[in-house]
Every structure is written in C-alpha cells, then in structure tokens.
Amino acid sequence: MWPHFLHGETGRAIPFFGKYDNGGDLVETAFMIQGLLAVRQYFDRDDATERELRETITRLWRDVEWTWYRKTPDSDVLYWHWSREYGFHINHPLIGWNETLIVYLLAIASPTHAVPAELYYSGWAGTSPRHIAYRRGWGRTTVGERYVNGQTFYGHKLDVGVGTGADLFFTHFSFMGFDPRGKRDRFTNYFKNNRAIALINRAYCIENPRNYVGYGPDTWGLSAGINTGGGRPNPRDDNGTINVMASLASMPYTPEESMAALKHFYRDLGPQVWGPYGFYDGFNQTQNWFDMVYMALNQAPITVMIENHRTGLLWKLFMANAEIQPALDAIGFEPDSDQ
Question: What pLDDT, in 10s, does the model give residues 244-277?
C-alpha cells in the first residue's frame, strides 16, 4: 500500500492528518493502481524498456493486499487505513456513495488478493445500521442513507447518493479509468447518475440561494478544496467558493455546461484562476479570494476527464485490462443505455 502523502525523495509516509496517518491508505492506493493499469495498456511495445515497465506495474498490482484491509476475515466492509505502529486505529470504513467505488472494484478484480464480490453490496452499498448511521452522520440527512436515493432535485432524478449528491469529486476520482458508460449494477447506471449529480450541482449554483457573487450558468462547481465551506450543493455547505475542477472534470457528463464554465474561467477570469500550469484550485468572488495553488487532486481529473470526453482514451486503456470485466460480471453489472 502507498500512504496518502509520501516524501518524494525517501518514499516515507508523511502523516499529514496526524500521527496515526503514517501507514498504508487503501483509497490512494486504489487511485494509483487505477492509473498504473491504464499505463500498463498504453505502453504496449515489445521492447525492453516497455516490457520492464509493464512487468513492474504488474508486480505492484499483484502485491497490493486488499484482503488485509478487511481487518477480519469475515468483515463486511473494507477499511481506509492501516499503520505498522497503530494498526487499524483510524478505523474508518469505506461506505458509499462517495469516491471509493474504485477501491471495491479493484479489490474484487485483484489476481492475487481478491475479496469476495459480495463485499460490493455488503460494504460499499451496505444497508446495515452502521452503514445507515455513517451516511446520515456525514451527510446530516436521511436522504440516501440506504445508498439509494430516488428523489428529484431541480428536475433531475438521483438514483444513488446522499442528500443532493454531495461533492462533485465523487463523480471523478473512481471514474478516471473505470468507464461507467453502457452498464449498470442493481442500483443505477453511474454515467447517468453522475450526470444527474453534475446537473443538480449546476442548477443549485444557478438558483444561488445565498446570493453569492458570480454564481450562474457558467460559474458553477461545488466540491472539496481550499476554502470551501463543505463543497456540497446545499446552503449550509456552501460559502461561495467555486472549485474549478468540479465543473471542468464533469465534461463527459455535461459537455456543453462544462465547456461554458471553461470558457468563462479562462476568458473572463483569466489570470485570477489560470497560470503557467493550468487552472488553480478555486476562487470566491464574494470574498474576493482567488487561490494561486495547484493541486494534483484537481489537475489530474481535469486533464483525464476532458480526454475521456474527447477520445475515451483513459477509459479504453483501463477497461482493456483482463481483470476488470470478470470483476464487473461477478458484481452483477449488466448492459444499459446511457439515455
């Protein structure tokens, strides 16, 4: 496992979230593996350099001990973090709906340390009292507490998700490699569900119930980031901060709406939100606050998801790995229309 943050020169874990955060992070590891599996397919030439790269990625993929993060052999859920010094002290279960779908998919797909496919439904989409309390606790609502939602917001029906859909990064991080198009599990088609979450987020910003400066059809996107009040499309979690990634990385789901935001950010706000390496994290026009910080957590989804909209490249590469489709079959994904 990789840690959440590591020192670039030594490889040692950086306990950014406190002393207990000094070990393996299952979520960040899943994001890394998702990217590496796409890379393994891209570098397909029969030469020594690319063979070595593929072999290294395969070794790393095979070495990830997903099963260890069940904590006990009969656990119905995977856990976020383990440390040599503190074990499972953080004790944080991975319960959806959020950014961790890819964790369960890869854990089930593992060629060496696979967890049972049933864990997708007992862990990620579970409805035990613990699961319900977890969703109700972080969402501060009973809407979506049983994984399914079923309500309509701003004219858009939300099959899955807590409250009004929560942070938009939920629709990006697990789907940079995993292609949600044309398939559904027993709950929803996640391409359509992600589109609904993005459109709800935009509609909330257009309604602008707290009358923040700048919000509108081309200035939208609430998600986690620097200075956000919560990053969710409801008044108590909204302090007027727009996360640039939120709308731009939604390009596959909302191409016209995301392009309008991109043009406005680049052409109208210009150097306030754009620098030598691309877009900054976010801005708040009500507070006259413009962030000059680049974050990989933002840069990667913007770049990858725009490319997935343009060509589907990263989706094609990741899905081409032989381990992925059998895992989806075991979970019970079936073909479905995206319309």
Answer: 999 999 999 999 999 999 999 999 999 999 999 9
E-assigned strand segments in 135-220: 152-153, 156-157, 183-184
In a domain? residue 142 = no
Residues 6 or more apart whose CB falls under 8 angstroms from that of 206 comprise: 215, 216, 217, 220
Of 296, 318, 301, nearest to 36 by C-alpha is 318
Domain count, the chain: 2
DSSP letter at 269 equals I
Q: Do 11 and 43 fall within a single domain?
A: yes
Q: Give the tokens for residue 12.
A: 């040692």
Whether residues 241 and 111 share a domain: the answer is: no
Helix runs in the chain, H state only? 26-42, 48-63, 101-109, 119, 129-139, 190-207, 244-248, 255-263, 296-310, 313-319, 324-331
Q: Are residues 207 and 317 in the same domain?
A: yes
